[in-house]
Amino acid sequence: MEEVERCEECGKVLKDKSYEPYCKQCDEKLDKQFDGIEDNILIYRELLDSEIKVLEKFEDTDIKDLFKRVYEKLSREEGGLKKESIVVLNKLKRSFSLKESELGIGKLPEIKEIKKSKPKDQCPECDKKIKEDFNLCPYCGYRLKDDFVSKF
Ligand SMILES: [Zn+2]
Ligand SMILES: [Zn+2]
After folding, report:
1. What spacing in Å lies between the alpha carbon of 55 and ligand 2's midpoint?
2. What is the pLDDT of residues 115-125, one digit of tens each?
3. Any idea which ligand is nearest the CA of 122?
4. Domain limits at 86?
């Protein structure tokens, strides 16, 4: 049996393979979402978990290019990289295990999150409900206590 290739997004049979692994419509839709995500990073310094899921559908090189573009633009702001920018860049970097050396940039300071005083029973990283005495978030592994050293 001949293998039928389907769009990874909507499952339609791919007649036109030039947008592989997606159909033309889905490819265009994803590109639009990609641009929206870029804007969200640049304008609102925000990268939502749902956006990361969308980005996961793209190639590594697309993500690296995205990183370089937003990094460059955010660096050109008056006064250089702002804290919020570093946080969002770090999030992008961590989510896709990017390395500064591959990106051709200097080491980013380790600012993970600007602590907005969230309730103590909420993980500052993934917002899930947690117990106050947890050392690590059971959902995302975020280190909740600074003095906690993982034994693993
Ligand atoms: Zn499709
Ligand atoms: Zn968490």
Report:
1. 20
2. 555 677 888 88
3. 2
4. 17-103
- What is the pTM (predicted TM-score) of this model? 0.69
Query: Which ligand minimizes its atom distance to the CA of 134?
Result: 2
Range among 37-51, 112-126, 134-148 rated most confident: 37-51
Instruction: Please enumerate in sequence order all residues whose Cβ is within 8 A of that of 89, keeping only pairs 6 or more positions apart, or say none.
Output: 67, 70, 71, 74, 81, 108
- Judgement on whether residues 95 and 152 belong to the same structural domain of the protein: no
pLDDT band at 86; cut points 50, 70, 90: very high
Residue 59 lies in a domain: yes
Distance CA 105, CA 28 (A): 30
139 CA from centroid of ligand 2 (Å): 5
CA 69 to chain centre: 14
